[in-house]
Structures are given as structure tokens and as C-alpha cells.
Amino acid sequence: MKNNIIVVSLKKNLLPAIFLLFTIFLVIFSRSNLAAAKNGLSLWANSVVPALFPFFIATELLCCTNMVPLIGRLFKKIMRPLFNVPGEGAFAFLMGVISGYPTGAKIVSKFREENIVTKEEGERLLAFTNNSGPLFIIATVGISLFGDTATGFLLFFTHVLACISVGIVFRFWKRNPKKDKKSKVISTTSSSIQTKTVSFSNLGSLLANAIMKSIDTIVMIGGFVVIFSVIISILNQSHVLDFIGKCISPFFELIGIDRSFSKPFSSGILELTNGVKEISKIATKDLSLSISLCAFLIGFGGISVLLQVFSITSKSDVSIKAYFIGKLLHGFFAFIYTYLITKFIPIFNLDLSVFSNISTGVSANTSSFSFSPYYIIFLLVVIGLFGSYRIREMIKKEI
Question: In the predicted model, is pLDDT for residue 47 greater than 90?
Fold first, then answer.
């Protein structure tokens, strides 16, 4: 009984204790936190707003037209058999791929509010339609960080391929033949109901409404960018990130990854941009590994994006659990696809691990570790088997 009281007390007071510590650290590390907040604001103003704000407005305007039902009719023969969602899901998928985080989540939440999708279909959609955009992957990661356009296109290709793979896996999420059959009728009915007329007489009000909704979302994202920039600064100054890096480094070494990647990877799990930037700075001859780890982080998106999505979907009944599992799978799929392509297709192989000593004629390996793709293939098979078991269990519970 006493142990139960202690557990309940810890659960009740954990978040207040964390918030109190955060406030104290804001004061203790005020100098570095100020710089981090300025960097976060600069990143938001110079990169996030220009990249996402126009797409948010365009998405809101398109949702006020007949475009969504039209896409639903065009793609229903693809989306239902492949992903077990209505054809309208193609709109969320396409806009999510084109514009980036968190557009997909915003559209799925809107679909649920308008009853275009059921709760289960919304969760399936959310798992694979909220993705990073080409502007960030190709321009920022590929060209700016790795200095190679081909790398950017490769990362975008494997990112999209991985999200399609996740969508196929999640077609079994909370699958119930009776519910799915009923949802087909509901989606067909909602498509016909959602017919909207846009004219010059109401264009001004629609545009103003779209701008106001987009401003709310973009300011919310800015808040997350700034606060996570400060959190990472605090974790760096307090050496917590070093501790986390040391904790995961044995696992990295077990599968053949150098321990120097552990801290940047930990940073990327918290916030995507900082982690990818730090990984790209690591001097290594095995660039395939650096690029593949970045592919995982881009696929996963980081806890910052996870909380952004949670803030959007919390207004609906769509569970964040499906999204979290889906993004983990997305990261693993993106990692394995990227690593296999960079290792086995010469045009994408940027590794400098093997060189010849001209004077002695002896070949040497400058890499301090040897990473075999078979390690990760084995891990992926294990994860796949476990995931299949869990999906079967969930289906049994639903039925």
C-alpha cells in the first residue's frame, strides 16, 4: 500500500518537478539560453516561416474547395487497397510530402473534424502522411550540410519510400472488416457532402480565415523551435546530453557504429535540425553511416515535432500512439534503405574508408570501425517480427 502511494505521488509531482527544474536552469544558464533562444528565433524566421507558411495557407484554401473530394474519387482505388484509408487520404499524403512537418497532421486532424475519415483511418493516415519536406531534405541537409545535391535527392527518395512502407504496414492498424466496410460508405457520403462553392464574393473571408489559422499554427511551431533550442542548450551545459550519449554508445558499438555519433544522435532525437547538423560535422570516412543516421532522424522527426503533432491532434480523438510507432518505423526503414543504396550503388557511395599507400603498395582501412549492413538487417527482421506479433494481437482485441 505504501509503495502504491509513493508511485502515485511520483506520477503526480513529476511534471511540476521538471517544470521547476527547467525554470531554475533558465536562470543558471541564462547567458547560453539567451543565445539559444535567439538562434531558435532566427531559424524559425529565416527557414521555417518561408518554407511552411505559404503551404499552410494553400492547404486551408484547398480544403475550402472541391479538391479534396475530387482527389478522393481519383485515388480511392489506390489508397483503400494499399493503405486501407479513403481516397481523400491521398491529399494528406501529397501535401505532407510536399510541404513538410506538421502539414500532414494538420490535414488529418481537419479530416477527422469533418468526419471524412474514421478514428482508426485517421490514426493510419497520421502514421505515414506527416513527413519532412523536400526543401529541408534536399536544400538544407543535402546541399548545405553534406555539400552534395545527389545526397539530398537520395535522402528524399528513401524518406518517401519509407513513409509508403509504413503506410502499408499500418493498413492493419486496428483493422476490423465490419468497421472498414462501414467506413467506405461513410467516406463516400462525406465526399459528396463536402462539396463547397468558392466564389469572388466569399474569397476575401476565406483568405482571411486561412491566414489567421495559418498564423496560429506557424506561431505554435515557432514556440516549439525556440523552447527546444533552449532545452538542448540546458542539456548541453548541464552535461546531460553527454550522459545520454554515453548510455547509448555501448549499443552503438555493439552494432558497429562509432561512439562519436551517440551525442549528436541523442540531440537529434530531441530536435531534428540540431541533430542532423551535428552528425554532418563529424569527421568520418564512412559517410554512408552519417547519411543513414540523418535519414533515421529525418524519418523520426524528433520529440519536438512529436509534441507539435500532439498539440494539433489533441483537439480530435486521433491517438498519438499510432504516430509515435509509425515514426519509429519510418526512421528504421529510411535508415536501412539509405544505407543499402549508399553501400551498394556506386554513384551514391561517398565513403573514403579504403585507400592505398602508394609508397608501400599496402591497402589500409582508415575507418576505426566496421559496420555491416547485416547487423541492421537482422535488427529490422527482429523488429518486423515483433511488430507483426503486436499487430496480430491488436487485431484480435478489436475483433
Answer: no
